[in-house]
Write a structure and sequence with these properties.
The protein has seven helices and five strands; from the N terminus they run βαβαβααβαβαα. The chain has a single domain, classed as Rossmann fold (3-Layer(aba) Sandwich). Strands 2-1-3-4-5 form a five-stranded parallel sheet, sandwiched between helices. By secondary structure, it is α/β, with parallel strands linked by helices. The N and C termini lie far apart (about 35 Å). β4, α5 and β5 form a beta-alpha-beta unit. The protein is globular, with a radius of gyration of 17 Å.
């Protein structure tokens, strides 16, 4: 896959860490650089900048803060998504789960989804990534095959946020590159009719709900 997007492709990165000095945010920035290499415009969604309540699942959402609707709008306009998370206790971050629960099919369905996980230990973030892969499928996103797990994260970044481990950096960059490439193919005229038929082949049982 060496295609360079010529159409306008927009990739959004959703950061699942709200730490001020977050290795997850640094890794996500690297992945977004990979998408930019393919010609995509990018936006990093920093959940520290959104006032989000705990998701209650209620039907009446008129009293939700406006940032809930801002988050949905920011994600909805993307052709591709990169979700990055630290691994906490064998799973992904609670703040990320809450943000995803406040969204739904309108934000994820039919989108290309790339995954990046960060861990302070040697085992990496594979469990967190597997859980996010299941969520991507549940929301009818196209989860790209490639993913990146950054173990011992504190050993792989300079103070300016750049990655010092070249092979690992390439793997993270490739997440962004694949999301942009597949998003381009998904949006291109040649594949649009096929994708349309594929996505309507089975009914979406939750398509009428936003969360």
């Amino acid at each position: 896959m060496n295609e360079t997007p010529t159409e306008s492709i927009h990739v959004v990165g959703l950061c699942g860490s709200i730490r001020d000095d977050s290795f997850t945010r640094r890794a996500l920035n690297v992945a977004l650089q990979g998408a930019q290499e393919m010609g995509a415009t990018t936006q990093l969604i920093d959940l520290r900048a959104y006032d989000l309540p705990f998701c209650s699942g209620k039907d009446n959402q008129t009293d939700y803060p406006q940032d809930v609707f801002r988050l949905r709008k920011d994600v909805s306009k993307a052709h591709g998504l990169i979700v990055a998370t630290p691994e906490y206790h064998g799973s992904y971050a609670g703040v990320l789960k809450n943000a995803i629960d406040l969204m739904g099919f309108d934000q994820f369905e039919g989108k290309m989804l790339g995954l990046v996980g960060v861990s302070g230990g040697a085992l990496g973030a594979v469990d967190a990534l597997n859980s996010l892969r299941n969520i991507g499928r549940a929301l009818h996103a196209w989860v790209v095959p490639h993913q990146a797990s950054v173990s011992d994260a504190y050993t792989h970044f300079d103070d300016d946020g750049s990655m010092t481990n070249t092979p690992l950096k390439e793997r993270v960059l490739d997440v962004g590159r694949q999301v942009a490439r597949f998003a381009f193919l998904h949006s291109s005229q040649q594949s649009q009719s096929f994708m349309t038929e594929w996505e309507k082949a089975l009914p979406n049982p939750g398509g009428g709900r936003t969360n």
